[in-house]
Amino acid sequence: MFHTVRLVDVYKAYDNGTKALKGVTLRIDDGEFVFLVGPSGSGKSTIIKLLTSEIRPSEGKVMVNGYNINTIKPGAVPMLRRTLGVIFQDFRLIEKKNVFENVAFAMRAVGASPRDIKARVPYVLDLVGLSHKARRRPHELSGGEQQRVAIARALINNPMVIIADEPTGNLDPARSLEIMTLLERINALGTTVLAVTHEKELVNRFAKRVIAIDGGRIVSDKQGGYYAHEQTRR
Predict the structure, then answer these.
(1) Rg of the chain in Å (alpha carbons)
(2) Are 125 and 166 part of one and the same domain?
(3) How many CB atoms lie within 10 A of CB 45?
(4) CA–CA distance from 182 to each of 48, 101, 126 (Å)?
(5) Is 88 within a domain?
(6) Are 160 and 191 in contact (CB under 8 A)?
(7) pLDDT above 50: residue 65
(8) pLDDT at residue number 231
(9) Looking at the structure, do residues 11 and 64 belong to the same domain, yes or no?
(10) 45 falls within a domain
(11) Could you give the CA distance from residue 146 to residue 123 in angstroms, rounded to a whole number?
């Protein structure tokens, strides 16, 4: 099976002396849906930065979609990032553009033709349930709708992997469940999903693989809810 993401004995120390990762080994295969959970400061953000090639490991090896992060040349980083769709907690939409334009902008950035944009954007907006809001501006949408625009934008260039970084952090429980269910649907269509979160109840609603990190080390890697396993041990 193709390994979409692979970390082998990865250490990361920052210039200020912080040891963010202490020997992390994990692999995520093509088509998986994985939750990465852990408290604040546990190393989750460092893993995301490694996967997107914002930083390099101090020791160990990081492979993402066939790219070696240890040796990747600056010119290849945009190519790597085209294989990834990243969803942020704070949406990062362009206020002066409407929903259609926000999503199309990500296609224009990689040189897509107007014809391709015209065909692809309505398809993806339909997938996230926002066809009827295509001409609305971000301020006219609810938080949940804005997050769905962000998901559409992450999906638009057909990435191999979606990285969702606390995608429900600013949403109420009902909207959070809606967003995770949408990510599950996207995964069912073949896209690998890595969802980074600290929302215990949400993780336990989905019987997925859960990788738990604490203090820069993986403390659990199980199917069906790490938090459920934790509660049975108490």
Answers:
(1) 18
(2) no
(3) 15
(4) 21, 21, 12
(5) no
(6) yes
(7) yes
(8) 45
(9) yes
(10) yes
(11) 17
